[in-house]
Amino acid sequence: MSTLTDLLAEHTKLSGAAVDHLQLVVAEWQLLSDLSFADFLMWVPLDDREFLCVAQARPTTAPTAHPEDVVGSTTDVDEHPQLRRAVTEVRICREEDPRWHLGVPVRREAIPVRLGSEVIAVLSRNTNLAVPRVPSPLEISYLGSAADLCQMIADGTFPTTEPSPDVHTSPRVGDGLIRLDASGAVVFASPNALSAYHRMGHASDLIGVHLAPLTRSLIGDPFDATEVAQRIRLALDGQPSMRIEAESRRGAAVLFRALPLRPRGSAAGALVLCRDVTEVRRRDRALMSKDATIREIHHRVKNNLQTVAALLRLQSRRTSSEEAREALAESVRRVTSIALVHETLSMSVDERVDLDDVVDKVIPMMSDVAATESQVVVRREGPFGIVQAELATPLVMVLTELVQNAFEHAYAAGQRGEVVVHAERSAKWLDVVIADDGRGLPPGFSLERTDRLGLQIVRTLVESELRGSLSLRRRPRGGTEAVLRVPLRARR
Fold first, then answer.
1. Strand, helix or coil at 193?
2. Considering only CA atoms, which of 361, 341, 180 is closest in space to residue 272?
3. 307-337: per-residue pLDDT in tens?
4. pLDDT for position 372
5. Which of 161, 164, 404, 450 is deepest in the core (most CB within 10 A)?
6. How many CA atoms, within 13 angstroms, populate the side-chain half-sphere of residue 240?
């Protein structure tokens, strides 16, 4: 299904400013839908008679009138005459009688979306009348607030572009809603809003209380207290505000957002949305503490491995046996490779490793070792990407062993050559080829029967840790290729 932007670009000639305004309306209209207990459809005119639906919203506070997807469908003035009337008369138009849709009685209203002096689209507010509703203070306040906001859309004063409303992370209608009159006194507070203020330390009812000074007295931080109170007052003066989070003196964390209500330019008070996020922030702090602990563990493991590598180097210098020195040097390389992975994890926030960064650190280290005996260079091609931590350590070990194997067995002392580490990544697999241009595999070579420690380590890691596959083969133009395939999907 095409997006709002795609549909507008394909079927209309609206300006960039008009498209941006319609996107702002769609970003805000879940609030309208919930307050109205109604579905909202956005229609744009294709010509004098036909309209195209480019977006749809369903209420979370009432049954939907449109269980089917309407986006992409068209209607004409015979089917929905209020759409054309809303465009030409620039006012909200309501059907006199409900109509039946899929066996459900639906009341439709058409709300012009105005930008400057131009009507750029029409909102159809469709209410499911199948469920009888008993008027209550909550419903009356919701519908009154929705009527004011819809009139502001028709006036062209809602939504505004400045400041950014942060609607995707703002409190919603069901989280807690407070209606203020023009003086800033509370005329309605939903049960969830009352609960949020009770958590903040206000034990009595909110009706009749001036909200800005009350909220200021409940918030612990003086700066946050002043900021929240100021944003409520600005909304009463007709200025919208971004969401803001504050913590009360009693430790309750609450999100606030204030919206002005100015239908036809007349001050009608403001809406304040609030949400108690105390438990959410408590869990966030616990996760941050746990994450910091895990990163500290990785940091200490890295330091310990570097200490082990340093001790092995000291031991190597004191050993007279050439074979022992080579074995210790290989151990240093393996320990250093693992340490690099833990160093990356100590700076990661989600237990994921950027393999390109690790491999680019390992390759120069291996090239330095190889330079003492040959003139072989190593080059990486293609992206390894980001992998889970559980794959990173065995994968880096396998790569370093295979490259080291090429250094040791593909070239004679002083011989020039090049080892290419080529990576290709798909949604499910990571394919790596380590290719050299050396002497090639010896006759009768078998990966399964080899007694080389490095290749035995590689086979064990590939089969038991990576659950992948590995093969060694001759290159057509000379040399050897090690072909590694590793599944990227999570293991169970």
1. helix
2. 180
3. 888 888 888 888 888 888 878 877 887 777 7
4. 44
5. 404
6. 21
Contact 262, 290 (CB under 8 A): no
What span, in angstroms and rounded, lies between the C-alpha atoms of 345 and 356?
Answer: 14
Beta strands in 48-185 (DSSP E): 50-57, 74-76, 93-94, 99-101, 104-115, 118-128, 177-180
Q: Are 120 and 91 in contact, with CB atoms under 8 Å apart? A: no
Report percent pLDDT > 70 for the chain.
91
CA distances from residue 135 to 34, 44, 142 in whole angstroms, order as listed: 16, 33, 11
Neighbour-count burial of 381, counting CB atoms closer than 10 A to its CB (0-12 exposed, 13-18 middle, 19+ buried): exposed
Q: Which residues make Cβ contacts (< 8 Å) with residue 5, sequence separation at least 6?
A: 19, 23
Distances (CA, A) of 101 to 34, 104, 176: 21, 5, 32
How far apart, in whole angstroms, are the C-alpha atoms of residue 344 and residue 338? 10
- Mean pLDDT in residue range 6-24: 93
* pLDDT above 50 (res 435): yes
Query: In whole angstroms, what is the distance from residue 297 CA to residue 342 CA?
Result: 9
**Size of the chain, expressed as the number of residues it contains:** 492
Q: Which helix (H) or strand (E) holds 459?
A: helix 453-460
492 pLDDT band (50/70/90 cuts)? very low
* Closest to 373 (Cα-Cα) out of 320, 409, 335: 409
Q: For residue 230, how many other CB atoms are within 10 A of its CB? A: 15
- Cα(131)–Cα(117) distance, integer angstroms: 38
In degrees and rounded to multiples of 5, residue 115 shows phi and psi of: -125, 110
Whether 209 contacts 197, CB under 8 Å: no
Structure tokens given for 52: 């195209």
Could you tell me which of 296, 71, 245, 271 has the C-alpha nearest to residue 182?
271
How buried is 16 (Cβ within 10 angstroms: 0-12 exposed, 13-18 middle, 19+ buried)?
Answer: exposed
184 vs 200: CA distance, rounded Å: 19
Tokens of 345: 């994890």
User: Tell me: the pLDDT tens digits for 366-421?
Assistant: 665 554 455 788 888 988 888 887 888 888 888 888 888 888 788 877 788 888 89
Name the nearest CA neighbour of 244 among 270, 219, 224, 222.
224
Mean pLDDT score, 355-367: 78
The alpha helices in 97-178, defined as continuous H runs, are 137-155
Q: What's the rounded Cα separation, in Å, for the pair 307 and 330?
A: 16
Residues 35-44, mean pLDDT to the nearest whole number: 97
